Amino acid sequence: xxxxxxxxxxxxxxxxxxxxxxxxxxxxxxxxxxxxxxxxxxxxxxxxxxxxxxxxxxxxxxxxxxxxxxxxxxxxxxxxxxxxxxxxxxxxxxxxxxxxxxxxxxxxxxxxxxxxxxxxxxxxxxxxxxxxxxxxxxxxxxxxxxxxxxxxxxxxxxxxxxxxxxxxxxxxxxxxxxxxxxxxxxxxxxxxxxxxxxxxxxxxxxxxxxxxxxxxxxxxxxxxxxxxxxxxxxxxxxxxxxxxxxxxxxxxxxxxxxxxxxxxxxxxxxxxxxxxxxxxxxxxxxxxxxxxxxxxxxxxxxxxxxxxxxxxxxxx
Length: 316
Fold this sequence. Notes:
Layout (H helix, E strand, L loop, with lengths): L15 E7 L3 H6 L4 H7 L6 E7 L6 E7 L5 E12 L3 E9 L5 E14 L3 E12 L3 H6 L2 H21 L7 E12 L3 H9 L1 H5 L8 E8 L6 E8 L4 E12 L3 E10 L2 E15 L2 E13 L7 H17 L1
Antiparallel strand pairs: 1-7, 2-3, 3-4, 4-5, 5-6, 6-7, 8-14, 9-10, 10-11, 11-12, 12-13, 13-14
């Protein structure tokens, strides 16, 4: 970093924190930070383009990005990757560079990728600043708006990556089993799984997700459908068909998951309820088929763990 001959100003701005929920796996959102091809599509606010980017995706590798205004003026950010934890965390140390190739301010950037229910990702960006030139303080005033617009572009790039999945057909199989013990009788747990009002208390997409439709008819041959829209505009749909329902004992259903019009998976899920003293031991087993390049990366199992924790909280 070109900071050795610069003097830190006495007054420094507060760190900036921005976050966004993406209806995509951490692997996919992380990928958008990993190459010049991706960075050039989104790493700038509205009204700017990225004509040049040098990205060496390794610790110590270059992160040099040119943002060009509508008037044709170039604004460079030059730095390096300090830390790379796949699908979890990035640290980038970079300087904003002035017209005379002098650093105007340092932006130490920490990016975290946190998986959310339903296979979504919460992205958090924290930037800590060190100002070297007084005029940089004025530039900092637009940082929150600029990052908001930049994350809008990142949403578009994530959607583009998801839609550009390999055209060939493929199926990846995965099975998981989760157990929970609840301090509630089997009848109460069964109600939480089968009663529409009770299930609505815990079966939801989390922050950044708005329910559009919810239907539920738990009986052999009955269906359940939950549809919601993420803040990015992507609509996810859970569409289930019940095959076996034994009160207080067992539930078996098959379900499809869609992102917009794309079918990403078909799964068979079984809930077994067993007595555990005065409480209930719930065993969930799911066998999934993930379709046509959709990379689950274990997100369905982690999301199911989150939901079963929410179910437990609803029983209290």
